[in-house]
Amino acid sequence: MNHYLSDIVSLQLLISLENTKSIGKTARMSGLSQPAVSMRLKNFETRMGIQLFSRDPNGTVLTEAGRTVCIWAKTVIDLIENYDYTINALKENINGQLTLGASQTIADYIMPQTIKLFKDSDQKTAVKLEVTNSMQVIKNVTIGSISLGFVESLTKPFGCHSKIVGDDELFVVVRNGHKFSKRKFIDINDLYNSHLVIREEGSGTREVFDALFGSVKFKSAPTELSSTTAIKAAITHSDEVSILSKIAIKTELQNSTLKILKLKDLKNQQNIELKRQFRAVWRSDKVLTRSQEHFISLTSAVIKTVTAGEIQVAKSNLKHLPQPTK
Hints:
Structural class: alpha/beta
Shape: elongated
Distance between the termini: 36 Å
C-alpha cells in the first residue's frame, strides 16, 4: 500500500478543507493547531507529488487534482468506517452487546417482552436500551451512539434504513366517568372544545397529532407532557382528554379506568383514523448483524401478539417466534 493511503488523518483534513476552504476552520474542527494542520497537509501534498490546494481571495481551495483525490478520500474513509463498524458488529455477535434506542411507547410496552425473548435465545449478548422520543432515537442512530432504533412514524425516517415491524392505532382517551365516556365516538368539534394533554414535539404520538391538527386552534392551548405515564395520570384524575396508542392503555382498559373513543367528523360524515407504523431504523451506511436482525424479528412478533390483544407471550407460542439464523 502506498504510504499516503495509510495517512487517514490527512485524508480527513483534506475532506474538511474542501468544505471549509480555510486551514484555520479545518484546524478548529479537527482539534489540531493551525500550524500542525498546515504542515500536515503540506507534507501530504509533497508525498503525493501533486499540488492539492492553493490560496486565492476566497480562501484555501482544492485544485482539480485535489478535488479528484478528495472524491477517492471520501470513498476510503467510508470503507474504513464500514470496516470498523463490521468488526464491532462481529464483536457484538461473539460476546458483546446490542446498543438500542426506542421511543417511549415501544420501550414501555414492547421492549420488555422482546428483550426477555432475545435473552432466552442469546444469553451471551448484553442488551443496552436507551429510552427517548422518536426524533431523538433517529438522531442517535444517525450519529452512531446506538446501532439500532425503534420508532413510531408516519413516514420513512430520512437518512436511515428502516423496516416496518408493526402497525399502531391511536384513539381519543378519557377517564371512565368523563362526560364523553358513555360514547363510542367523539365529534372532532367536541375535541376542539376540550382541554387536551399531548406529548412533546419529537415524539411519534405528537407527530400524528400535528399531522392532523397542526393548524387547528383549540379552545384552550393543549398541555404538553413528556411521558405517556404522566399523561395517563393527568387524564385519570381530571376531565382532560388525550390521544394515545391503544397499546399504551391496555391495562387501564382492562381495569376500566380509561375509555377509548373513535374520532369522527360528523359534518362530513367521515371516520378519522389515527394510524401509524412502528419501524426499526439503522444507519443507511451500515449492515445489520445477525443479532440485530433477530432482535427486529422478535420485536415484530411481539407487536403482532400485543396488538392482537394478548398481553403476555405464552411459552407455548415461543416455538412460533423467529429464532436466530445459525
